[in-house]
Amino acid sequence: MTKILVTGGAGFIGSATIAEVQKSGHDIYVIDDLSFGNRDFLTIPDTYFHQLDILNGHGLNEVIQKIDPDWIIHLAAIHFIPYCNQHPLKSSNINIQGTINVLNAAKSLKNLKKMFFAWTAAVYPICEDPIPETQQTNPLHIYGLSKLAGEHLMNEFHLQTSIHTIICKFFNAFGPNEVNLHLIPEIQRQVNSGLRTIELGNLEPKRDFIHTYDMARAIIMLLNKFDSGIDVFNLGSGQEYSVIDVVKEFENQLGEEITIKVDRSRVEKSRAKAFTG
Ligand SMILES: NC(=O)c1ccc[n+]([C@@H]2O[C@H](COP(=O)([O-])OP(=O)(O)OC[C@H]3O[C@@H](n4cnc5c(N)ncnc54)[C@H](O)[C@@H]3O)[C@@H](O)[C@H]2O)c1
Known about the structure:
7-stranded parallel sheet; single chain; Rossmann fold; 2 domains; two-stranded parallel ribbon; 9 helices; disordered C terminus; alpha/beta; binds nicotinamide-adenine-dinucleotide
């Protein structure tokens, strides 16, 4: 049985990943400070759940040594771009120093075989075409920059330890347990409140959406399939959807027409985030 530690496991992608791993009967441990996540998303016993801030290097080291995992899936981060823009120091500190703390604790583990790091498509500039792994990075905001630093940290970790490392750039996740008000939950919130004229920001961006269940399957597949070295993957569906496409899908599901009213105050905010996270 593989012992798997998921940091940020109580979040949106983490909870889907854990549900997928549970199907194979592995031992799953979670470290999450519940700043954005929710304990109720998980069906693991309390002894396997550690409510802990990854900025607490000493506490983190102690817990990780005690768990002694075979795999670490490092998802804990602040990734909601408007929040990152409002709290640049706090969010980049968690994304960079928090990652350093996880890696420092991981370096002295005896049994660790795999390290998985959730990177983001937000490290790329805005592109019209599908984005290959070889695309030059050029993040547009502090969140993307903090994640770019994470890639360098992972490269260094692999060079120092030779532990198999996977860096996976997620495109836009959607699915249950979304804790941040990205596009789809925001439309859903307004539609569920009975509105049929909804207010949105910038209608121009197109996004590559991937369901968290598919993402979770892909994460486990990548971890099972590759065994050595350092690998970098882009994880998306390869298809782009505009805001209007998404609203149309809501119309199809509802069987009712939805009118979009552009809220200028949201446009400036959404311009800063060509990718959700
Ligand atoms: N959601 C997306 O579309 C998307 C896209 C690209 C990359 N990502 C990356 O995937 C990972 C998971 O994202 P998500 O959408 O599940 O986000 P999320 O906010 O739902 O989950 C992140 C989890 O990390 C926890 N966390 C935050 N700060 C912490 C800290 N200091 N100590 C311990 N735990 C902390 C939160 O409580 C939360 O449960 C992140 O690394 C994110 O950058 C997400």
